[in-house]
Design a protein that fits this description.
409 residues, alpha/beta, Rossmann fold, 7-stranded parallel beta sheet, 6-stranded parallel beta sheet, 18 helices, 15 strands, 16% strand, globular
Length: 409
């Protein structure tokens, strides 16, 4: 017997019994009340590790979870990890290709909930997720962002008294007509730890009565992924393949219901892009929701400089975004990414949950009306002012700060 081995009779904790009974190397029966075992340093380490369950469901989640998984993997003495994919995004280009390009591990659990109304989808995630918690018994459930899977998994975990950590907490648009805003508000109220990307998020949480001891300002974890993969993205041949010159084209993304579900609004945006494409080529990777609406309206860009293309993987989209002369979007993540990249951005929304991208970044809000879009694009293309610096802690190391918090709980 080595000097570090000790004979010990003790009453096992629930965590220790789980460790023994779930590992075939230690074939003890969970019903035993007293166990005489040889406790090694390895067993003690096993008992001390935190079991972390990460939740992903939709495209915006993947680049936020990837760096946290990687950072925790670098601390095998502290963390065991389980990755759960709810299947909220079911299109290949909106899910699987992201796992490949972001070097995410295959999910340990895939819930395959698919599409549906907000109520149907949220309920489906809750029903499918509860037995996953029972199987894995995590110490913490990590949810990111503001999609339906975020709220659903936070709610189930909280009801089962499993602690919840919310990454990207505290963002507020003030617009409760947006489903994402409801998801943000409720998830933050349920969470035991709230990791914020910017200091305005801390202020929002404080106004809502969140205990400040739960809040940690760690920076923007999505930027960790962007910073790591930017060189790889810029080496992609997509610009050459599409005949594009850096800085000489516009990139567009649209998917918010307010922009794509109202036929008159979508038609106005489409007409604006057709007119803008006479100034510069416009590249439009079309979200499945938007593609369906365009087909319904019979809108077509054939023979113009407006290129409607299939949704792109992370690397190709980042390549196009980093070299664009201007980006027109309604995506929260794109507002942040363009701010980090120093690319001018127009957001076709009346509000944003990321005001720091306006105060310190390259983003500007613009009406979705056809004339307003054209005027805003013309002004942005004329603007020769230098772009602002990056917000605090948007430096590619936010995941490391999260891991330090968790390792020192």
């Amino acid at each position: 017997m080595s000097s570090r081995d000790t004979h010990l009779i003790f009453t096992p904790t629930a965590n220790f019994v789980h460790a023994l009974t779930s590992n075939p190397v230690y074939p003890f029966h969970s019903s035993c009340r007293f166990v005489q075992v040889v406790v090694t340093a390895e067993w003690e380490s096993y008992e001390a590790m935190l079991r972390i369950m990460h939740i992903v469901g939709a495209r915006p989640n993947f680049p936020k979870v990837a760096p946290i998984l990687a950072a925790m993997k670098g601390r095998p003495d502290c963390f065991q990890q389980v990755l759960v994919h709810t299947g909220q995004h079911y299109d290949y280009n909106m899910s699987k290709v992201f796992f490949e390009e972001l070097e995410l591990p295959n999910p340990d659990e895939f819930l395959n909930v698919g599409s549906g109304s907000h109520a149907v989808q949220t309920a489906a995630v809750m029903v499918a997720f509860e037995p996953v918690l029972a199987r894995h018994k995590p110490d913490w459930v990590f949810v990111v962002g503001d999609v339906n899977s975020t709220l659903a998994c936070a709610l189930v975990s909280s009801k089962l008294c499993i602690r919840v950590a919310h990454v990207e907490a505290g963002l507020r648009s003030g617009d409760r007509t947006m489903p994402e805003e409801i998801n943000r508000l409720l998830t933050d109220q349920l969470s035991d730890l709230l990791f914020t990307p910017s200091k305005d998020a801390n202020a929002n949480l404080g106004r809502e009565g969140i205990d400040t001891s739960k809040i940690r300002f760690v920076g923007n974890v999505m930027i960790d992924t962007l910073a790591r993969l930017l060189p790889k993205a810029q080496a992609r041949p997509i610009l050459r393949q599409m005949g594009l010159k850096p800085g000489q084209y516009l990139l567009t993304t649209l998917h918010r219901p307010a922009n794509v579900d109202d036929p008159s609004v979508l038609q106005g945006i489409f007409e604006a892009m057709l007119k803008i494409s006479k100034m510069r080529p416009v590249i439009f990777p079309v979200h499945p929701r938007t593609a369906a609406r365009l087909r319904d309206l019979g809108l077509d860009a054939a023979g113009t400089n407006l290129q409607l293309i299939e949704p792109l993987g992370y690397l190709d989209f980042l390549a196009l975004m980093s070299s664009a002369g201007l980006v027109l979007t309604d995506s929260g993540g794109v507002q942040e990414e363009t701010t980090f990249l120093g690319v001018r951005c127009l957001t076709a929304r009346p509000n944003t949950e990321r005001p720091i991208t306006i105060i310190q970044g390259t983003n500007r809000l613009v009406s979705s009306r056809c004339d307003a879009l054209i005027t805003a694009v013309e002004a942005a293309l004329r603007d020769q002012r230098s772009v602002p610096g990056r917000p605090e802690f948007w430096d590619g190391t936010a995941a490391g700060r999260i891991v330090e918090v968790m390792a020192n709980l």
